[in-house]
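User: Could you go from structure to sequence for me? I need the amino acid at each position, not a summary. C-alpha cells:
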C-alpha cells in the first residue's frame, strides 16, 4: 500500500498526543513522556513514508518518460 507508512505515522501521532495529554492531566510524567515519544515516532514514520512515496513516484515518472 502506497500510503501505509504515512497513515500508520499519523495514527501514532494521534495516539501519542492522547497519551501525553492524559499523562499531563493525571500527573503521570512517565505516561506523558511515552506519549510524546510515540508522537515523535509517528511524525518520523509519516515523513519517511512521504519521502518513499515521492521517490517512487519520481522513478515511475522517469520510467514512463524513458518508455515513451
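Assistant: Here is the amino acid at each position, in order:
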Amino acid at each position: 500500500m502506497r500510503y501505509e507508512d504515512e497513515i500508520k505515522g499519523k495514527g501514532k501521532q494521534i495516539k501519542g498526543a492522547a497519551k501525553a495529554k492524559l499523562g499531563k492531566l493525571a500527573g503521570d510524567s512517565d505516561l506523558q513522556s511515552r506519549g510524546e515519544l510515540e508522537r515523535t515516532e509517528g511524525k518520523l514514520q509519516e515523513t519517511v513514508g512521504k519521502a518513499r512515496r515521492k521517490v517512487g513516484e519520481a522513478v515511475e515518472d522517469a520510467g514512463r518518460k524513458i518508455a515513451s
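One structural detail worth keeping in mind: The chain has two helices and no strands.
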